[in-house]
Amino acid sequence: MTTLKVGIASHEDMEARTMAVARGERRIEGSEPKVWFPSTESFAKVLSAGNRDLLRVIAARAPGSLDELARITGKAKSNLSRTLRTMEGYGLVCLERGARGRITPKVMYDHVQLDLPLMRAPRAS
Fold first, then answer.
1. What are phi and psi for residue 30, nearest 5 degrees?
2. How far is CA 16 from CA 9, 11, 42, 53, 81, in A?
3. How many Cα atoms occupy the beta-carbon half-sphere of 53 within 13 Å?
4. In what order do the strands lie in the sheet with 35-37?
5. Which of 7, 49, 51, 57 is geometrically suited to a Cys-Cys bond with 33, CB 3.0 to 4.6 A?
6. Whole-prediction pTM value?
7. Calpha distance 88→103 (Å, rounded)
């Protein structure tokens, strides 16, 4: 089983985290999320029921191109391309370029684990 651990953090929080790491004030732990979404809404949109179904189809059918995936799903190739590029940005899929420029989608994980603290950690002064 391959699991992608994701978290939710605002742009400001991610910038502060990155700067603290760069200054040596903070270390990134192995247990921390590898991918960050800017909001719970963006997480829910990217991993909507329809998009999870799309990931399952890709994993089960292993389409050799976006054209084939469009035929299997009945969705427009342009919509699939846009959705998959967004998912690629979050590390959920890999879009491999093959023969004659064909793009082949591959699902990278079979589970997503959301790390969502309810309380904000106090900021270092």
1. -65, -25
2. 10, 9, 20, 35, 33
3. 8
4. 35-37, 3-8, 111-115
5. 7
6. 0.85
7. 12
Say which CATH architecture domain 3-115 belongs to: Orthogonal Bundle (1.10)
Q: Give the CA diameter of the chain.
A: 55
Spatial separation of the C-alpha atoms in residues 4 and 2, rounded to whole Å: 7
Q: How many residues does the chain have?
A: 125
Burial of 42 (0-12, 13-18, 19+ CB in 10 A): middle
Helix (H, G, I), strand (E, B) or coil at 12: helix
Please, what are the averages of pLDDT over each run of 10 residues along the chain (125 residues)? 91 92 92 92 97 98 96 97 97 91 94 87 54
**Separation between Cα atoms, residue 22 and residue 60, nearest integer Å:** 41
Joined together, the tokens standing for residue 64 give: 């050799």
4 within 8 A of 35, measured Cβ to Cβ: yes
